[in-house]
């Protein structure tokens, strides 16, 4: 058993020796530190840590191992390893490629809250490519939102980016049963969840398509998909009027963009466009 300290100044894993640079994030089930390797050519990596045993982090590691070499999905480096901190608390840890550009939420902020539609089209296609891989292997991400889409600059100027899907701790694996509707049934982030997933606990690839529509709308407007959200004490959630309405489509969006969002926001998950169909939609096809 490795007995390193993920939050200390120096750590040894079964794969790498590294020093912590800084803390870069904290989610619902894990914290993320930026580290630098100390042997060979120095590399910056992200280490995601959660008190052991962490079912979410172990699930994420298991899923990411299925996507090694896939360009639109964040890459996992080495093996998951166990560590013990100075208080003798055990942690699960996973090495991930570091996204120096932050998240899509950060990128929206750098654009001043509204990304031009020409750029939204390109970014949407990148997200679709990642979802295509995920759905082809039978997974549902379940938590598509700007914070879970990471930004990787393609050049030193930082003017060109590649987007990758991250945070698979809430994903539905092939063969996994849906949760029963009711308190605590929501797996992802409530404002981005589809009506059928919130009301009936139905989790399918159609959920990710609805969430993608919410993300596209947020890139265009800088706004969350719903004006009002109700979350009870058990984290079960409903969205305002979600049973009868869909998020508003931006008025200044092109005809192709409007149609794309309408395909994402079909209230019937069986009619909602699949990722395969959306990749060929005019909104993104020529990007």
From TrEMBL:
Identification of the protein by name: Serine carboxypeptidase 44
Taxonomy, top ranks, is:
Eukaryota, Viridiplantae, Streptophyta, Embryophyta, Tracheophyta
Question: Which PROSITE patterns does this one have?
Answer: PROTEIN_KINASE_DOM (PS50011), PROTEIN_KINASE_ST (PS00108)
Q: What GO annotations for molecular function exist for this entry?
A: ATP binding; carboxypeptidase activity; protein kinase activity
What does the UniProt keyword field contain? Carboxypeptidase, Hydrolase, Protease
Q: Which InterPro entries match?
A: Kinase-like_dom_sf, Plant_MAPKKK, Prot_kinase_dom, Ser/Thr_kinase_AS
By its UniProt entry, which SMART domains does this protein fall under?
S_TKc
**Protein species of origin:** Hibiscus syriacus (Rose of Sharon)
Residue span, Protein kinase domain = 18-284
Q: Which biological process annotations from GO are given for this protein?
A: signal transduction
Q: Which SUPFAM superfamilies match?
A: Protein kinase-like (PK-like)
């Amino acid at each position: 058993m490795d007995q390193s300290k993920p939050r200390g100044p120096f750590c040894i894993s079964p794969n790498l020796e590294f020093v912590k640079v800084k803390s870069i994030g904290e989610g619902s089930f894990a914290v993320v530190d930026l580290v630098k390797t100390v042997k060979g050519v120095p590399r910056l990596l992200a280490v995601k840590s959660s008190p052991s045993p962490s079912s979410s982090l172990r699930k994420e590691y298991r899923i990411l191992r299925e996507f090694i070499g896939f360009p639109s999905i964040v890459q996992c480096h080495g093996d998951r390893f166990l560590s013990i901190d100075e208080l003798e608390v055990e942690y699960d840890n996973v090495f991930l490629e570091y996204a120096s550009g932050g998240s899509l939420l950060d990128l929206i902020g750098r654009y001043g809250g509204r990304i031009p539609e020409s750029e939204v089209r390109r970014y949407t296609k990148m997200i679709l490519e990642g979802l295509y891989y995920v759905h082809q292997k039978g997974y549902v991400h379940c938590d598509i939102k700007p914070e879970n889409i990471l930004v990787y600059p393609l050049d030193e100027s930082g003017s060109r980016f590649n987007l990758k899907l991250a945070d698979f701790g809430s994903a539905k694996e092939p063969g996994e049963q849906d949760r029963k509707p009711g308190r605590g049934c929501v797996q992802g982030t409530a404002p981005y969840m589809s009506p059928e997933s919130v009301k009936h606990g139905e989790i399918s690839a159609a959920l990710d398509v609805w969430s993608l529509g919410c993300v596209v709308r947020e890139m265009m407007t800088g706004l969350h998909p719903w004006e009002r959200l109700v979350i009870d004490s058990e984290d079960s959630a409903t969205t305002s009027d979600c049973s009868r309405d869909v998020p508003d489509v931006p008025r200044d969006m092109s005809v192709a963009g409007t149609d794309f969002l309408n395909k994402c926001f079909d209230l019937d998950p069986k009619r909602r466009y699949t990722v395969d169909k959306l990749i060929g939609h005019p909104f993104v096809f020529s990007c």
